[in-house]
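Budget justification note: compute hours in this period were largely spent on complex prediction jobs such as the one shown. Inputs:
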Amino acid sequence: MCNTTQIVQKIFKNITLTNDELHLIANTFEKVYLKKDETLLKINTTVKNQYYVYSGCLRTFYIDKTGKEHTLQFAIEDWWISDYTAFFSSGKAIMNIESIQNATLLKLSRTQMEHLLENIPALETFFRKKMERAFSSFQKRILSNLALSAQERYVAFVNTYPNIEQSVKNYHIASYLGITTESLSRIRKTLAKG
Amino acid sequence: MCNTTQIVQKIFKNITLTNDELHLIANTFEKVYLKKDETLLKINTTVKNQYYVYSGCLRTFYIDKTGKEHTLQFAIEDWWISDYTAFFSSGKAIMNIESIQNATLLKLSRTQMEHLLENIPALETFFRKKMERAFSSFQKRILSNLALSAQERYVAFVNTYPNIEQSVKNYHIASYLGITTESLSRIRKTLAKG
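Corresponding output:
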């Protein structure tokens, strides 16, 4: 297990930081450990934090008025997770986040982030580019939902989250693809036959 | 019709800019006029530009392998538009953009944007926050696709794009909602009955 400074060096490997800046960031981030199936964020609570995933796997999910779960996304190693719509506006969560495996996260609050951005302007570029990538992945997901068959969406899922299938439950994947677990089984059988 | 400097003042009204900075931005943006039904961006071409919509309405759409169109989004006054996944990576467009009405746009290339960001650090924050809003709107759209009925998605569309319905064709809206134009008619009739 790396210490926080080593993790911070990994996260920000593409930008040049002085030692002072590195330590400011490392002292700002707070390590959070989650066991499998723990809740990180609960619907209707104020969203103050975003999290960097050092290890483990989490998922963000929405519960509709019939009680059905819809998985918006999974977060694996080196991803960031929050209910960003609420995080940006300091509003209340419309989604839940839970751990699917034991996880180690680094927590960064909105206030802490603003403080870091004021003191280390290079981080503006980092967080802008992070948002650009997140935006692109959402664009891909919207187009998949609109234009791809369930089987094609499943293949895209496997490509986006390699090695995740062993760790997550079938209904997590089905609720991400917008299909039933029965359809998921059929798709896997079809693909296995080649 | 405002001149470019006046439009730039409007776009960046929330940040403090010196007169020199304002003029640098105004001299960088290039005005583009489009007639209704003109193509702004064609699939498979390299995406170098993003556009600010001063007036008019455009749509970004994807054509699947069966030739069916899927509208990713509409852009109305005060929105920005591009194939952002390709724009960020200087890659090729996977979507088309066309004007639905006569439109006046301000064009900003990736290179020009990087140049502005180097010279006016305050713009980093502006473009980060713009990405945050765009990201949030995509998050909402993904959740709508997963969790809402076609009728609920239609109501959300009307709220997101007020006053747009008169300007766009029914098949544009249907291809945004992921339904047929017949379903769209049925939904409108149901809602009209109250």
